[in-house]
Design a protein that fits this description.
By secondary structure, the protein is α+β, with helices and mostly antiparallel strands. Helices cover 27% and strands 24% of the residues. The chain has 3 domains: 100 residues, Uridine Diphospho-n-acetylenolpyruvylglucosamine Reductase, domain 2; 111 residues, 2-Layer Sandwich (Uridine Diphospho-n-acetylenolpyruvylglucosamine Reductase, domain 3), CATH 3.30.465; 199 residues, Vanillyl-alcohol Oxidase, Chain A, domain 3 (3-Layer(aba) Sandwich), CATH 3.40.462.20. Helix 8 packs across helix 11. It binds flavin-adenine dinucleotide.
Length: 478
């Protein structure tokens, strides 16, 4: 008799026997991994070490045919599905407890068309893989700042990085996609075919199907860009951020910048006396004409006397990996975010106080200066609605000791709540969602006027909410 395993959520129990698994195995080319199989523990891990979920099955898809087989199998057995791109979402939604993980990490090819200025990118590619291929042509997809992050999760909820003010969000540069929908059909999506789905994919998250490949617009970038990396004494935060808000209000689109309450690094090239001390770091990237970059970043280097200044020109590929060592796999993370309508003195004061209370020296408060190209797209033109805020606050709790989970999570939540209550803010950035514990309220505040349309599109393409291990948009009732 075939061995049976009963799996699933509280709501539904699903029986999977060996015969069913063998049937699926015969239909896919990629590896199928179950509890107890070699590699299971490795493949159920994600970047955030606090996430510990046990899926029933992991299907390492090698192509669209595998994805179709996996979706059909899960749907017919009412098995919860999660989709794994780069496995870097802080909420760990890539892994479904008790369900099936459609793991796309092997679908990571990148093909650049330098004539049409586009790139075709597999649904499991990382930013590093995209940058590697596009920079071979002096091109780039505007994306995030850590090379191991997946392009899929990042672009489906927006995508902020060094080129956002210059060329827009990652999702603004998404021009087409192949999607395996809940009914197992492959939809070739662009502005002619399924334009409503293209609209939803530009910011609406992984709610509408499995994106097996994306097509992005690419832009001339590099090979070198000018970077400002200036570490100032944190005691000067008030004056520094006053300068920062005024400077960024006038800055050209080519300049992207963020100010970070953090501690200085503990190693070379930081001089011994300046290591591991609280600081306000100004980071900026100038991606316009190279010979104008030094002048563009210079004012950020001269606001006061810095503790350390590591500014200079560097290859764009290097700039895109600067933060990699700070975010190792398996550390514990809890990140929230909230848009700010301004950076008035009272806001700065509050942030400085919160930063001084960080329970972990590797935690940070990041102030992203927005605007530019991102701001010139109408809020209803794509699913990504929150485009007019001048700043985004990223509240990053980062720590190693499991005993410290509670205190570190509590700190980030407290900063979030305080900013929300004391200052008029406008929604959250869904790529830094904490554990999305606010549920639908978080989505409503972030999608704003686009939420109802997203629910209607969800009802059209995934009426039974098969794809729900994500920041879930419930289908409109039909
Ligand atoms: C160290 C670090 C730095 C970061 N820096 C930035 C940054 O600079 N800018 C920024 O905007 N964000 C940044 N982020 C946040 C990042 O954008 C999100 O964590 C994003 O979800 C990561 O994508 P992923 O594919 O790795 O996610 P995963 O965890 O694999 O997936 C998250 C969700 O995306 C959906 N999904 C993933 N792949 C697919 C697919 N192919 N088809 C359909 N749905 C899919 C699923 O719903 C899944 O649950 C950073 C994250 C980390 C960890």
């Amino acid at each position: 008799m075939a061995a049976r395993e009963v799996i699933g959520t509280n709501a539904r129990q699903v029986a999977l026997d060996d015969r069913a698994i063998d049937e699926l195995r015969a239909r896919v080319r990629g590896r199928l991994i179950r509890r107890g199989d070699e590699g299971y523990d490795e493949r159920r891990k994600v970047w955030n070490g606090i996430i510990n979920r046990n899926p029933a099955l992991i299907v390492e898809c090698t192509g669209t045919a595998d994805v179709i087989a996996a979706v059909n199998f899960a749907r017919d057995r009412i098995l919860p599905i999660s989709v794994r791109g780069g496995g870097h979402n802080v909420a760990g939604t890539a892994i479904s407890e008790g369900g099936m993980v459609i793991d796309l990490s092997r679908m990571n090819s990148v093909r650049v068309d330098p004539l049409r200025k586009t790139a075709r990118v597999g649904g499991g590619a990382t930013l590093g893989q995209v940058d590697h291929e596009t920079q071979a042509f002096g091109l780039a997809v505007p994306a995030g700042v850590m090379s191991r992050t997946g392009i899929a999760g990042l672009s489906l909820h927006g995508g902020l990085g060094l080129l956002t003010r210059h060329y827009g969000l990652t999702c603004d540069n998404l021009i087409a996609a192949d999607v395996v929908a809940a009914d197992g059909r492959v939809l070739v999506v662009d502005k002619q075919d399924h334009p409503d789905l293209l609209w939803a994919l530009r910011g609406g998250g992984g709610n509408f199907g499995v994106v097996t490949s994306f097509q992005f617009r690419v832009h001339n970038v590099g090979p070198e860009v000018w970077m400002a990396i200036v570490m100032y004494p944190v005691e000067k935060a008030s004056a520094l951020l006053k300068f920062f808000r005024e400077f960024m209000a006038q800055a050209p689109d080519e300049l992207m910048a963020l100010a970070v309450f953090w501690n200085t690094p503990q190693e070379e090239p930081i001089p011994e006396g300046a290591r591991n001390v609280p600081t306000l770091i100004l980071f900026a990237c100038y991606s316009g004409p190279f010979d104008q970059g030094e002048r563009a970043i210079q004012p950020l280097r001269e606001i006061d006397t810095p503790l350390v200044d590591l500014s200079g020109p560097m290859p764009y590929l290097v700039a895109q990996q600067l933060f990699d060592p700070d975010y190792p796999d398996g550390r514990r993370y809890y990140w929230k975010s909230i848009y700010l309508r301004g950076l008035e003195d009272t806001v700065v004061q509050a942030l400085a106080e919160h930063a001084a209370r960080r329970p972990s020296p590797i935690s940070s408060i990041d102030i992203w200066a927005l605007g530019g190209a991102m701001n010139r797209v109408a809020p209803s033109a794509t699913a990504f609605a929150r485009r007019d805020a001048p700043f985004l606050l990223g509240i990053e709790s980062n720590w190693d000791d499991p005993q410290q989970d509670e205190v570190n999570i509590a700190w980030a939540r407290e900063v979030f709540r305080d900013m929300e209550h004391r200052f008029e803010t406008g929604g959250a950035y869904l790529n830094f969602p904490g554990f999305a514990e606010e549920g639908e309220a978080l989505l409503k505040m972030s999608f704003d006027g686009n939420y109802t349309r997203l629910q209607e599109i969800k009802a059209k393409y995934d009426p039974s909410n098969l794809f729900r291990s994500n920041l879930n948009i419930r289908p409109a009732s039909t």
